[in-house]
Amino acid sequence: MTAHQPGRTRRVDRSALLALGGSLAIVVLAALRVMPVWTMPALPVALATSELSPAIALVALIWLALSLWLLAHRPVWRAIVAVVLLGTALFSLRPLLQARGVASLVRESLPPAATAGATAASAPEPLASLPAATEVREQSVDYAASDGTPLTMRVYRNTASRGARPIVVVIYGGAWRGGDAGQGARISRALAQHGYLVAAIDYRHAPRHVFPAQLDDVRRSIALACDSAARWSGDTTRIALLGRSAGGHLAELAAFAPNDRPVRAVVALYAPWNLVEGYRDVPAPDPIDVRARISDFLDGTPEARPTRYHEASPSSYVRPALPPTLLLFGARDHLVKPEFNREAASALWAASDRVVSIELPWSEHGFDLVPGGLGERIAYAATVRFLDRELLGP
Predict the structure, then answer these.
(1) Which strands make up the sheet holding 355-360, listed edge to edge?
(2) What does the alpha-carbon distance between residue 190 and residue 186 come to, in Å, rounded to a whole number?
(3) How far apart are CA 111 and CA 383, in angstroms?
(4) Radius of gyration of the chain from Cα atoms?
(5) 359 SS3 class
(6) For residue 101, is pLDDT > 70?
(7) pLDDT, tens digit, for every residue of 287-317?
(8) Is the pTM of this model over 0.85?
């Protein structure tokens, strides 16, 4: 009997180490969602641990049950692990509780549109999963900028829809220097499944191409979408722009600055607002080097290019009768400070423009790009409710 005791002890120790090691890993994973984002590679980790935090809570509870079995002969360790993992699970459930509050705000601010095209039954719930894009056809369209630079548009449309569909032009983010029209494809497909014609457009990138090249490309792309609308069954009298980050900035510019293409609504997700303020008041930490990105985009500093900074800032065009605007942003954004989106909402309200501002307390920059995440679900539901109201209403 004594001869078997060492082996039993080693097995117990291994079990204890497994339980403690796994518990520590889960605690560290949960803690990552509140760690400052010092470098860009850390951003996807912060995003995933924030937006998928309910899944981390579930993993913590499952590991707790396994650990209690592994530590059957270690009552003190069992108690410690139980307290730590239960605390981690509760900590990881906080974003879900916050999301429920935001979901209530979405329902209150954006009730279902009372139209034939968007009934209460069709209005998505803020925390529901995105619909399966079972009837959506995608195609790529190659075109060119004014200087011949090749661009690519991705078009999404529901093959089962009849009649002319409202057009949603999607503009990707990437600090004006990267990205492509495939960004946010899950939401683009879901919007198409809901009944919109979605045109995800392209534009030239800084620093090789500086402003206003990007805005010119957005306008050229909108014109292309409108010229092709009859072929795609799109309605050119009902156009909305949806942009993320730098794309949200370009969406606001294209809709707010005087132009000959009327826009019915704008959805801007975590978008820059006043580029002079953005240059001077950078986030801390600043993983993307905001000043370098803005100066590359505008070919200089605010002191060197004051007119260009003014013309490139959506804040410069605030006045009454702008298109209704939906602002979506995260309170923990380390690339575009949430204060700028709050400032945008205040400025639009002050000008008597229609604006809905929704802030996600747990979220980082890019929250809607995490598949199945809390932010993706809320962003999609808020966007559809807003667009239904603005594009399908009288």
Answers:
(1) 136-144, 150-158, 197-201, 165-171, 234-244, 265-269, 325-330, 355-360
(2) 6
(3) 12
(4) 24
(5) strand
(6) yes
(7) 999 999 999 999 999 999 999 999 999 999 9
(8) yes
